[in-house]
Amino acid sequence: MTDSTRRSPLHDFLAPDSIAIIGASTDPTKRGYKALVGLLEGGYEGRIYPINPKAPEIMGLAAYPSILALPAAADLALICTPAAAVPGILRDCGKNGVRGAVILASGFAEVGGSGVQLEAETLAAARDAGVRIIGPNTSGMFNLHKHINLLALQDVKPGDIGIVSQSGNMLLSLALQAQRNGFIGFSTYVGPGNQTDIGFGDYLRYLSEDEKTRVATFYVEGFRDGRAFLEAAREATRVKPVVVYKSGSTEAGQKSASSHTGALAGSYAMTVDLLRQCGVNVVAQSDEILPVAEGLGLLQQAPGKRIAILSDGGGQATIASDRISEAGLKLAELSTLTRERLANILFSQASLSNPIDVAGSTDANPGLFTDCVDILLRDEQVDIVFLVGMFGGYSIRFDQSLQPAEEHCATEMARCVRERGKGMVVYSLYAPVRPQALMTLREAGIPVYDSIEYAVTTLRALSDRGTYLKHANVPPQNLELGVTDEATVLFERALAEQRDLLEPEARAVLASYEVPVPDSRWVRNDTELGQAARHFAGTPVAMKIVSRDILHKSDAGGVRLNLASEQDLHSARETILRNCRGYSPDAALEGVLLTPMARKGIEVIIGASRDPVFGPVVMFGLGGIFVELFKDVAFRAAPLSRHDAESMLAQVKAARILDGLRGEAPVNKAALVDLLLRISAIITQYPEIESLDLNPVIVHSDGYEVVDARIIVGTDDQTRGNE
Amino acid sequence: MTDSTRRSPLHDFLAPDSIAIIGASTDPTKRGYKALVGLLEGGYEGRIYPINPKAPEIMGLAAYPSILALPAAADLALICTPAAAVPGILRDCGKNGVRGAVILASGFAEVGGSGVQLEAETLAAARDAGVRIIGPNTSGMFNLHKHINLLALQDVKPGDIGIVSQSGNMLLSLALQAQRNGFIGFSTYVGPGNQTDIGFGDYLRYLSEDEKTRVATFYVEGFRDGRAFLEAAREATRVKPVVVYKSGSTEAGQKSASSHTGALAGSYAMTVDLLRQCGVNVVAQSDEILPVAEGLGLLQQAPGKRIAILSDGGGQATIASDRISEAGLKLAELSTLTRERLANILFSQASLSNPIDVAGSTDANPGLFTDCVDILLRDEQVDIVFLVGMFGGYSIRFDQSLQPAEEHCATEMARCVRERGKGMVVYSLYAPVRPQALMTLREAGIPVYDSIEYAVTTLRALSDRGTYLKHANVPPQNLELGVTDEATVLFERALAEQRDLLEPEARAVLASYEVPVPDSRWVRNDTELGQAARHFAGTPVAMKIVSRDILHKSDAGGVRLNLASEQDLHSARETILRNCRGYSPDAALEGVLLTPMARKGIEVIIGASRDPVFGPVVMFGLGGIFVELFKDVAFRAAPLSRHDAESMLAQVKAARILDGLRGEAPVNKAALVDLLLRISAIITQYPEIESLDLNPVIVHSDGYEVVDARIIVGTDDQTRGNE
User: Quick check: A247 and B322 CB within 8 A?
Assistant: First the structure.
C-alpha cells in the first residue's frame, strides 16, 4: 500500500518514529519504567524522550523536565500521570507537535461524577491541541514490527494478527495462548479504553491499511459508534479478515460488561447480524478467537463450503463429519475422476467417498497423503481440504524410521496447497506433542489444530468469508428511492404536532413508496361510515381506532374484526369509541379505520428502528410465537442491499415455513424482499422515524397484506401521549 | 468394595494375574511383540506366557508352543493371530481355563460376507469354551494400575479415568492430551470392537465396580444393546460419573460411523435423552471429553447450579457470565452476610455482586483469594465457586516476589475447598504456561482450565450430575399398572388376525388404562348411524374411516370434520367410503368412527415405540411445526418415573407455551404427566406393540382430549396392509 492511499491518521502515532514517555520512571513497578524498558529491550529504533521533572537521565537516555523542552516533535506520547493532570499535558503535547497520546489513567467517565467532566475537558483539550487520544483508561498499545511494546508484555513476537481489545486481560490471554502455540505473533495492539476520541471503527481502518496485519481481531464489550465500525468493516473485510468476539450474549454478561467498561451492550443478536452483514467473522466462543484468527490470517478465505475430509480412519473422521454438518458446511461430492485417482493409489478397502478413509494405505507410507491432497485439491467440487487424524504421529506410533518420509510429506503437501491455490486445514491427534512434521506444515502456512472443533470453526470462518466476498464483489442491484412529497408532508405535520403518525398516515407513507397497502377507509363521521359501508359492501372488514394517543389498539378495546353489515359497523364503532374513552379519557380519538379482513397466510413481522449505537436497522421475523418465544428474527443495517434482504428471509430458523410446509404453496419471497427494501429506504430517508412496525404482514403465494402499520416519530423532547 | 459385592465377571480378566500372548513375536512391528514389551517395561507383576510355536524363549521368558502347553491357567489371553485361527484357539483357551480373550484380528462381521459367519463361529466357540471375548476387531486394552498395557501405548500414566472407546485413535488422542496436561491418568481402557460378546453395558458395570476408576468415559459410535447400557448406567451413575460422547449427531456423521464400525446409529437426539435420563453426562464436543472427565473425576458433582464467579476483573468475568447463563446455570445470589464479609476485605471499588470483581485488591496480595473463596463457599446460596482470571500469573505479571504468596494461596484455597465440602473450578489465563501455583491447585484436586468454555462445560456437567443425584436418590412414586383384561383380548385378536389395532380398539386399550378417551361411536351400518346421530344430537362431530388397511386416514380422504345433522353424517359416510375404496380398492373398510370435535387448545404429540437398540421409548412434543420443523421432542426410556414424565414437559424448547403465552391459562400439566405414565405402562406391558401414537392430543387448562390414537402391532413376518 502506498502512502497516497493511506487515509487513517492513526499511522502517524501507532507506527511512530519518536515517542515521549510522560512520567518516565526509575521505579520498576511503574508503567513509566516498564514502557521504557519495553522500548529499550525491544530494540525500538526511533527516538525515545523520557519526560521526568527531576531526573536529567533515565536508563542512559537524556530526560526532559517537560514535553515543551523536547528538541523535536514526538509522534506519540505515552501519558503515565494521574487523570487530573491529563488536560494540561495534552495542551503541552499540542505545542510540541505530538500526533497522538496514549492515556493510561483511569478515573474518567467510567467512574461517573466528576470523571465525566474530566473526560470532556480532556477531549476538548486534545481537540484544541490537535492531538488524538487512545483511551483514557486504556491498557496501552504495542506495535511489534516497530519494536514498540508500551505494555512491556513479555514473550510476544511480531506477527500478522492485529488486536483491539476492550480488556487488557483478553490481550494477555491471547498472548499466553500464542506463546504456547509458538508460531502466532502480533502486529499492533490497542486498548481503546473509554473510546473518548478514537473508536473501534478508526482502529479497524488503521489495521486494514497496516501492511503487517493480515487479520484484524476485536474483543468488544460495547461499541460507542457502531455505525462507524460497520462502515469501516465493509471496507476492511474486502481487504483482509476481521474477527470480532462480542461479549454480552446474555443478560448476565451484559450486566457484567456494563460494570466493567460501562459499555452500552445493545442487542447481542442484532450486533452479530449487522457485523456479519459487513463481512465480519463473529466468533461465539472466547477460546476460538485465536484459532480462528490464526487460520484466517494464514488462509484468508475458502471459496465455498464444500469440504473434503481426508482421514486415516478412526472416530475422528466421524466427529469431523458431524461438526462439518452442524456448522452448515458440506462434505464435498467428489467427482468420478477424483475417486478413480484415489482408487489408483489407495488400498482397496479405502473409503473413497467423503470422508475419505485411507484405511491403512498410509501406515507405512505417509507420503501418499501428498498425492491424496493433490487429487482432492484438483477436484472442482472441493473448496478446501481438511486433513484429520494421525499425521505427524506416524513415526511416533508406527515406526521411527518413517520420520523423514513424514516430514518430507509435510513439505510436499504445503507446496501442493500453495500451487493449487486452495487451502488445507489440519487436525492431528499428535498436535499436543508438536512433532516436526506438523511444525513444518505450520511454518509453511497451513493451520494445524489440536481440536476438531477449533478446526471446523475455522473452516466455517474461512468459508463464510469466501462466500461473503463472492457477493460483496458483485455490484448490488439496489432500489434507489428518495423522499416522496406525500411522506415528507406527513412527517412535517407529525413533527409540528409533536405526535407519531396516525395509522392512515403510516399507510399513506407506505403507499407513497409503492408498497401495496390494502384498501382502507378512514371514517370520522356517520356520513363517511355510510360511504364506507357501501364501498365494502359484502366484504367483511376490520375496524380499528385512529388516535395519536393510543399505541396499543387491542389493549384499548379499539379493534373489531369480521364486520359485515352497516348495522355491524355502526355498533362496532360505538363500542370502540366507548372502550377507548374508558381506556384513555384524554386521548384524542380521530375516527376509525376500516380495512377488509386479511386472507389466510403466514404471519411475518417487519420492523425498522433507529438504534442508538448502529443507526437505522431493519428487522424481519415470522410472527406469533416465533418472535415471542424464540426471538427468531434477523437484523440488517439500513440501507439494505437486495442480497441483505434475501439473506434475512433465509436466516430465520423458521425459514422453511416460507417455502411451504405440508405441501402448501411457497410464499412470494420476491415481494417480501421488495417490501424490506422499501422499508429500508423509508427509514433511511426520514431520520425523524424512531421506529416503524408492520405487525403483522400476512404473506401468501401471490404477495402480502400489511395488516397493521405503525410509525413512531422521534422528537427528543416531545411529551408523549398518555400511554 | 469387597469381593462379595463384585458382580462383574470382567474383573477376572480385565485385572488378570496371568496373561498369555498367543502369537508372541520377536518382530518389533508385531502386536505380539509390542504387547510383550508393554508388559515387561510396564512392570507387570503377574505371570506372562508367550505362546509361539517356534521360539522356546522370547525376551527372556519361557515360551510355549500352544496354550495347551501352559503349566497353569492364564486369566487373560491376548490373541494376535489372523481371524481364521481364532475359533480353534478359543477352544484351546477354554481347555486351559482362560477367563477372557482379547481378539485383535479384524475380518469378522464388520467386513460382511464370510466374516459374519466367522464371528458367529467365534462366539459359539467362546461360549462352549467358557471364555469371554473382548472384540474381535479391537484396539486392545490396558489396566495401568496392574501395569498391563497391551497396546504398548507410550507416556500414559495410571490415574482414575476409565475409558471404553470404539475408536483406538480416540484413545490415542485422549492419551496425548493427557500427556500434555501432565496430571491426567487412566485406569482401564477397553476397545469393545465388534461387541460380539461383551458390550458397553458390561464394561460400564466393570468400571463402576473398579476401585481405581473415579469416572467412566465412553466414546460410542453405536450401541449394540442400548437397553443394557441404560440399565448399567442407572446403577453406575449413583456411584460415580459416567461420561459419554456419542458420535453420529448428523446424517453425515452417521454415515461415516457406519462405514467405520458398522454401527447402527439410531436417533442421536433420542440417545442423548435416554442417557441423560440415567444420569449420564453426555458431552457434545469431542474436545470437551477429557476436560469434563477430568473435572468430574476430581469433583464428582456440584449440589446445584448456583455458581459464584470470583474474578480479578477484565473481560473474562463477563465471558464467564455469558457462558454460565447460556449453559442454563445461574449466577448465585449472594447473601447480605457474604457481601459484608467481602466488603470487609476488598477495596471499596470491588464489585460485590456476582460476578465478584476484586478490582485490584489482590494485585499485591493474592492471598486474599483464600478468604474470598472461603466466604463464598460458606454461603448457602453458592453451590460451587468459579475462580476466573490471572491467578497463577501474579508473580509473572506483577512482581516475582509474589510467587511464594501465590503458591501458599493455592495450597490454602485447596484446603479451604476440602474443608467446606464444596467444589471450585479454576480458569486462569496463565494456564497455558503452567505456573507452580496452578500446578499446586491441580495436584490438590482442583481442576484448572485454559479455556473458559471448557471450565463452564465442566461446571454444567458437575451441576447436572448433582441435580440428577438429588432426584435419583428419592424413591420414585410411580404408577404401577399391570396388564388389563380388555387390552389383552384386543392384542391377542390383532395378533391372531395379523393386523394392527383399529382405532376403536386403540381407544379401548387407552380406556382400559383409565385414559379419559372422548366419547365415540363406531358406526358400521345405517342403524348405528341413526343411533349415533341421536346420541351426538347438536354436537358437531368428526368422522373417520375404520380400516385395518388404512394407516393414513386423511391421505385416503377418510376424515370429515364438523358434521352436525344426520343428513351430514350420511353424506360424509358415503364420501369417506367412496374415497377410501378409490384410495385402496382391496382395503377392508370396517365402518367409520364418530367423535365430537375437539375443543380448541394446544396440540401435543405423545408417542411410544420399541427401539431396536433401546427397547420401549416414550416421546413427547408440541404438535405442528414444532415437531415437523424443529424436531422439538423429548424421549425417555419406558417405564417412566413421574420425574421422567415431568422432565419431558420441561425439556422441549416450546415448553413455555404450556405455561400459557399472552395471558392464556396454563395447561393441565399434571394430566399430561399422568397420560405419559399410562402410555409408558401400556408399551411396557405389551411387548407386541411396535408403536403407539396419540397425534394430536389437545391440551387445555382442565385436561386433554386424545384426538387420534394409533397402535401398530409388531409381528415380524407379518404382511402389512397395502399401504
Answer: yes
